[in-house]
Write a structure and sequence with these properties.
Keywords: Carboxypeptidase, Glycoprotein, Hydrolase, Protease, Signal. InterPro entries: AB_hydrolase_fold (IPR029058), Peptidase_S10 (IPR001563). It comes from Mycena venus. 29% of the residues lie in helices and 18% in strands. The chain has an eleven-stranded mixed β-sheet, with helices on both faces. The chain has a two-stranded antiparallel ribbon with strand order 5-6. It is globular and about 60 Å long. The relative contact order is 0.15.
């Protein structure tokens, strides 16, 4: 199951991008909980019209865990909506490119979850520092050997920081006020897992607001459309996810025994019917009902014999531990808080379950074909790269291949008829569109699970750079 929706107790085990694990043992009903977590007003009816950047730390002297010369800035972006209320506040951390930052590409990255910290990916290797385990078994931050800042500016946005739980991440215009040179540079958005739902919404919002610049209140804004997106193991469509769950997790990577797999087959028709109904009559109640039906019957991750995020890892007798361990310890370390100017009394969460995860679940956010929102931007030239670890059970590659084949675009026919190419020593590539890396591309990575950045950091840095440069992957 992605999440077993029990809300009485909070979990001790959370993961980076897409949360799987118990929320509690006590059952509940939608009616008992929805009033507490409902969205309230429609956030789209009051779009952001002004951004105020607050700089809390200027790392021109370097970063304690990076290489000599690494520079950064960090602070908060405060967003004012069309009603004149400054109602959203997001922490940001800009890691400057090591070479010619004023002309280097800009990569904006944020977490999945929903509610996962946007700092996890940068501290898993994409930023100048990476978290590892020292000889005493403790977490420590050290220079990243394969930082993306070798090629680009990396802007991390923490969606879980002082933000209304009813609102999605808002990233447009964050980089244009105090860093105008970045507006002229190549721009890519990167995320993973539940970022596969966030990214289409963000792209759609930027795309539509670019068309609304003549409206009152928008004249002072700079809204830049990204040239491309890069998505890791993305949850973008509930229907294709569950359609391919049995094939992916009982046959490709047998996470479950034969008895459980037979139960999954029996539960699939009801799950898929519930999703179809929720898609056709999309209300919070219908979406949540589909979520509950599918989680209860089709994805029993508490019964898996191997780590849901990486088939290569066996579960111990007591079951798989989904805790972040030293990563969580280091991100809560006072040294990092001091380095970026975060007050010591401000609690940092890897996963904002109370404020973000639970409201998204209760309002049925998991049950939507978010990928469809990419269509208009792709028609205007947006390049799409999705890479997927083939040992991941939480978001298997087959479900991503399925929605990529279904998405109507100028690339659909070519992608559906493309020949899968061997990527020597890595996996395979399936692509459509011009150029050696294509414009609509899926890279399958054989020896990786949910967190490709951890197990294949050097490879991922290479894929990222080649995608930006439009050069062959191999």
């Amino acid at each position: 199951m992605i999440i077993i929706p029990r809300l009485t107790l909070l979990p001790t085990s959370v993961v980076a991008y897409l949360h799987v694990g118990l929320l509690s043992q006590a059952p509940f009903t939608f009616e008992q909980t929805h009033s507490k977590f409902q969205l309230g007003s429609d956030p789209a009816s009051q779009p952001n019209i002004h951004t105020r950047l607050e700089l809390t730390s200027n790392g021109s002297a370097g970063l304690y865990c990076g290489r000599p010369g690494d520079e950064f800035n960090a602070g908060y972006a405060h967003f004012t909506n069309s009603g004149g209320v400054e109602d959203k506040h997001m922490f940001w951390w800009l890691f400057k490119a090591r070479h010619d930052p004023e002309n280097a590409p800009l990569i904006v990255t944020f977490g999945g979850g929903p509610g996962a910290s946007g700092l996890l990916f940068p501290f898993s290797g994409a930023g100048p520092c990476v978290i590892q385990i020292d000889k005493q078994g403790r977490g420590e931050a050290v220079p990243s050997p394969h930082s993306w800042t070798d090629y680009a500016n990396v802007l991390a946005i923490d969606q879980a920081s002082r933000v209304s739980p009813s609102l999605r991440p808002t990233i447009e215009d964050v980089h244009s006020r105090e860093y105008p040179y970045l507006v002229q540079n190549q721009f890519m958005i990167s995320s993973g897992s539940y970022g596969g739902t966030f990214i289409p919404h963000v792209i759609n919002a930027i795309y539509n607001r670019n068309r609304d610049l003549d409206e009152p209140g928008w004249a002072s804004r700079t809204i830049k459309m990204p040239e491309s997106i890069m998505l890791a193991n993305g949850w973008s469509d509930a229907q294709t996810h569950f359609q391919w769950f049995h094939q992916s997790n009982c046959i490709d990577n047998p996470f479950f025994n034969a008895t459980i797999c037979n139960d999954i087959v029996k539960a699939l028709p009801g799950c898929l019917d519930a999703i179809q109904y929720a898609y056709e009559q999309s209300t919070p109640i219908n979406r949540y009902a589909a979520f509950e039906e599918c989680n209860e019957g089709v994805s029993p991750w508490d019964l898996a014999t191997r780590n849901a995020y990486d088939y290569r890892e066996e579960c111990p007798a007591g079951g798989c531990d989904l805790d972040l361990g030293p990563v969580e310890d280091v991100l809560n370390d006072s040294r990092i808080k001091t380095a970026v100017g975060v007050p010591q009394d401000r609690k940092f969460l890897i996963m904002a379950i109370d404020d973000i995860t639970t409201p998204f679940i209760i309002n049925g956010d998991f049950i939507q074909p978010a990928y469809l929102l990419l269509g208009p931007a792709i028609a205007d030239g947006l390049r799409v790269l999705l890479y997927n670890g083939m040992k991941d059970g939480v978001v298997p590659w087959r479900s991503n291949l399925a929605w990529m084949r279904l998405l109507k675009s100028q690339h659909q026919s070519a992608f559906r008829n493309a020949t899968e190419e061997e990527y020597p020593g890595v996996g395979t590539v399936l692509k459509a569109g011009a150029g050696p890396t294509g414009e609509f591309t899926l890279v399958k990575i054989a020896e990786a699970g949910h967190m490709v950045i951890r197990s294949q950091a050097e490879l991922l840095q290479h894929i990222m750079a080649r995608w930006l440069q439009k050069k062959p992957f191999y």
